[in-house]
Amino acid sequence: MLSRIEKLLNNIGEGRAAFISGGANIRYYSGFTSEDAFLIISRDRRMLVTDSRYYVQARQQSPEFDLIKLEDGWEKIFAAVPEDEIVFEENIITCGFYDRLKKKAAHKTFLRMQKEIEAPRRNKDAGEIKLISEAEEIGSRAFMHIIEVLHAGMTERDVALKLEYYMKKQGATALSFDTIAASGVRSSMPHGVATDKVIEKGELLTLDFGCVYEGYCSDMTRTVVIGEPDAKQKEIYDIVLAAQNTAIDGLYQGMACSEADELARRVIRDAGYGDSFGHSLGHSVGLEIHESPNFSPKSRDELENGNVLSVEPGIYIDGWGGVRIEDLIAVVDGRIVDLTTAPKNLIRI
């Protein structure tokens, strides 16, 4: 099996070196966990460039890389790179930094190659899937905890803070993203970040949250009802749950990601709510919360071994509210594995 760096070098082409500045890519290729660094990788040399604050950390975490002192200056650093062509992440480097590099290394040609650099991260190995699964399990435990303490009269922010505190007590080092806690009519906003709104009896509450564990992200969504659900709340919830179950049950290695999106979208469309499901079915998760490939109508990707993606259909009705249910799935040795263990039945608080 090719190593991560071998895959990278094959992707960027012969006679080129990769200049890497994105934190997730630095960690993926070198193991270095600070974002205050750069990698320069060629077929003959692996260089980790950082300043004096991180020398000890760099030697400990990235022993296979030559430690290069940022204080030496870019002219000297690039003079040690024999390749004339340097590829870089076009979505990460700013225009100002690009201009500085061009000036400091005028004898080099810089080429944009975001996808080629990040492509090896699409297919997670067993160790990566284990870490994502452990992060997701922290989230599942957090959900089981929150439904025990949740009650009418709490604010959305109260709930979000309790979720976040619990996940960090369970070993999470950070949040994957700002916790979404949207109640009542606010649950019609897919990204309704928690506010000081008081959660009231009879309302739906959508919770979308995740944590970072050993560098890897989790992501899950559950929608609960405060008190007894009315007929429309049950109807919408059942449609979304059916859409999610249909999609997960229909997934298989090699299927078109656009087809996976359509499995869920068709259920919602046939129920008469097609216009109320605006976002794609899901996205990949890993060192970053949004990676590739995606389950979307326009995707040209196929579901491959090692992919980890969210499956998160939803229905959102302005002025009424919304429902979303989200699990993470992984393709492991050709099988579809659901990494999310929290229950999906409509829970009454």
Global Rg: 23 Å
How helical, in percent, are the residues? Answer: 25-40%
What does the main sheet amount to? 6 strands, mixed
Q: Outline, from the CA principal axes?
A: elongated
N-to-C order of helices and strands: HEHEEHEHEHEHHHEEEEEEHHEEEEEEE
Instruction: Specify the number of helices.
Output: 10
Number of domains: 2
Beta strand count: 19
Q: Tell me, what is the CATH class of the largest domain?
A: Alpha Beta
Structure explained in plain terms:
This protein has 349 residues and is an alpha+beta fold. The protein has 2 domains: 4-121, Creatinase/prolidase N-terminal domain (Creatine Amidinohydrolase, Chain A, domain 1, 3-Layer(aba) Sandwich); 123-338, Creatine Amidinohydrolase, CATH 3.90.230.10. It contains 10 helices and 19 strands. A 6-stranded mixed β-sheet has the order 4-3-2-1-5-6, with helices on one face. The protein has a 3-stranded antiparallel β-sheet with strand order 7-10-11. Strands 8-9-12 form a 3-stranded antiparallel β-sheet, covered by helices on one side. Helix 7 (126-149) crosses helix 8 (156-169) and helix 9 runs antiparallel to helix 10.
Which helices and strands occur, and which strands form pairs?
Blueprint: H1 4-12, E1 16-20, H2 23-30, E2 38-41, E3 46-50, H3 55-61, E4 66-69, H4 74-79, E5 85-88, H5 95-104, E6 109-112, H6 114-118, H7 126-149, H8 156-169, E7 174-175, E8 180-183, E9 204-209, E10 211-213, E11 216-217, E12 220-225, H9 231-250, H10 257-270, E13 282-284, E14 291-295, E15 308-311, E16 314-317, E17 321-324, E18 327-332, E19 335-338
Parallel strand pairs: 1-5, 3-4, 5-6
Antiparallel strand pairs: 1-2, 2-3, 7-10, 8-9, 9-12, 10-11, 13-14, 15-18, 16-17, 18-19
Helix pairs in contact: 7-8, 9-10
